[in-house]
Amino acid sequence: MFGRKSPEKVVTRFAPSPTGFMHVGGVRTALFAYLFARKHKGTFILRIEDTDRERLVPGATEHIMKTLHWAGISWDIGPDTPAAENPFGSVIQSERLSIYHEYAQKLIEKGLAYPDPYTQAELEAFREDAKREHRPFLYRDHRPKTFETWDGTKPLRLKVENPRRMEWYDEVRGELEAGPEVVDDIILIKADGFPTYNFAHIVDDHQMGVTHIMRADEFIASTPKFLTIYEALDIVPPKFVTLPPILRADRKKKMGKRDGAQDALDYRSEGYLAAAVVNFLALTGWNPGTDQEIFTMDELIETFALDGIQSGGAMLNEEKLEWMNREHMLKLSPQEYRAFVHAFIPERLLKLPQWSEERFDALLPSVRERISTAGEFRDHAEEGEYDYCFAPIILDPTLLKWKKDESAIDALPRLRYCAEILAALPENVDRETVEATIMPYAEEVGRGEVLWPLRVALSGRERSVDPFTLIALLGTAEAYKRVLYASDMLRK
RNA sequence: GGCCCUAUCGUCUAGCGGUUAGGACGCCAGGUUUUCAUCCUGGAAAUCGGAGUUCGAUUCUCCGUAGGGUCACCA
């Protein structure tokens, strides 16, 4: 029986391959490992598995770190940890080659590893045969009788002495097992001198004292192979924690980069709060066992437990994410809200040269002032009912371009929208430019969206958010009341 | 094809032999809000199929079915 160990200090890791951006599945895997480590006051390691030199993407490591940082997932030891402070020297696999070779040498000395004499073409032929005969391909059926000395130019394979049924325990799935037909002489070190994932992750996890391996369920099938390596190295395996897959919306396949999965960081530019995305991902594949749905990161750390992890796969419920985003948005203080808006606006402002960030900042006080000093309309509100009033100044009916058979009520949404925008504009902005910019947009958006400050200001999934809208609606929750009041003024 | 995993409302899920099968998102209806966000109330909506174990199965076992994973010098 593998996979059971006595209690000790928890060490988890997230070990991505720097081959591109992270999708939400990766973020969730990292999150669970992070939550578990923090929950138990343990250590969370970010390890970079860059042993595939072909698929390596420059900058990917930095992008992964950026994504995790955004999500609020911090690591104790990572690729950015100075060597002097890193107990393992480096957590980047390409910088740890001598360690893998050292372990490989042990296996060679024990007679448990040998060089693979075949060419790729020969191997391919073997596979073809197996496929034709409808049986799984097993390298060990072709294992050479005698072994050459490994000179490092050929792949090094594990010699599985006695292939047998393997059983192990998974913290989520329970007792698992698979027959000897999945155990094979897998490659430990590739011809280029780099270790395979299969070998490197085991050496690393052992050397770094990892106690729990969180990973998605595609690794269940290869766990028996891993177990033969643990056995050959005489290493007691960590605990296995298998996470359920995140499925594509059509439920046909597991989510993956090649299936249109998006960069998780896109959620940020689309106006989602990291807190909402984290909350959402935590709850797909895990549940606290209570009815609580909205969690802060601290609450997740406090509540997280392995026995709440699901077995079955889950599809992402985008509408629920939207809802969570709203909930988290409403928890923000005005300062936090403003900081959030500023955090993602600049990218969009850059698309409109005349609206530099400085200009945007300069506008804010002006908008605020207009709103708070619109006293002449305040008299119309019942006392104390509204904190703010809004002055629908400069409203020029010709700007609205009424359709002939359109009633005033129907036009109201546009009316409100324009009023908001116009009120926010400085006097020196050219009226025609404003009109050209606003009108198509006002036509497009629904009234509900116009009046839903959080949504309008922060969405932008299909169209870009324009700075006018952001300015006009910066007041968040108060904006709604202001607009309601203003619209009433307009009706009279 | 072999091996492995999974299966409760449309979606995320609770349930760990006896429940009117609970919650959330979304949806529908009504009420607040000087229509539309928020908020409140109510509603429709699920145990994949078949055997077996048991006094009793959503729950345990087996067989189907469906979906997913895996069988790389990718991770």
UniProtKB/TrEMBL annotation:
- Signal peptide residues on this chain, from the entry's feature table: none
List, alphabetically, the GO terms of the cellular component aspect: cytosol
Annotated ranges, domain Glutamyl/glutaminyl-tRNA synthetase class Ib catalytic: 9-323
Q: Which GO terms describe its molecular function?
A: ATP binding; glutamate-tRNA ligase activity; tRNA binding; zinc ion binding
Entries under Gene3D superfamilies matching the protein: 1.10.10.350, HUPs
The Aminoacyl-tRNA synthetase class I anticodon-binding domain is annotated at: 353-483
Q: Name one GO biological process term.
A: glutamyl-tRNA aminoacylation
SUPFAM superfamilies the UniProt entry points to: An anticodon-binding domain of class I aminoacyl-tRNA synthetases, Nucleotidylyl transferase
Q: Which domain of life is it from?
A: Bacteria
Motif 'HIGH' region, residue range(s) on this chain: 16-26
EC id: 6.1.1.17
Cited Pfam families: Anticodon_2 (PF19269), tRNA-synt_1c (PF00749)
Q: Which reaction does it catalyse?
A: tRNA(Glu) + L-glutamate + ATP = L-glutamyl-tRNA(Glu) + AMP + diphosphate
- What is the main EC category here? ligase
The subcellular localization recorded is: Cytoplasm
- Binding site residues for ATP: 257
- Quaternary assembly: Monomer.
Function, as annotated, reads: Catalyzes the attachment of glutamate to tRNA(Glu) in a two-step reaction: glutamate is first activated by ATP to form Glu-AMP and then transferred to the acceptor end of tRNA(Glu).
Family listed: Belongs to the class-I aminoacyl-tRNA synthetase family. Glutamate--tRNA ligase type 1 subfamily.
Q: What is this protein called?
A: Glutamate--tRNA ligase
Encoding gene per record: gltX
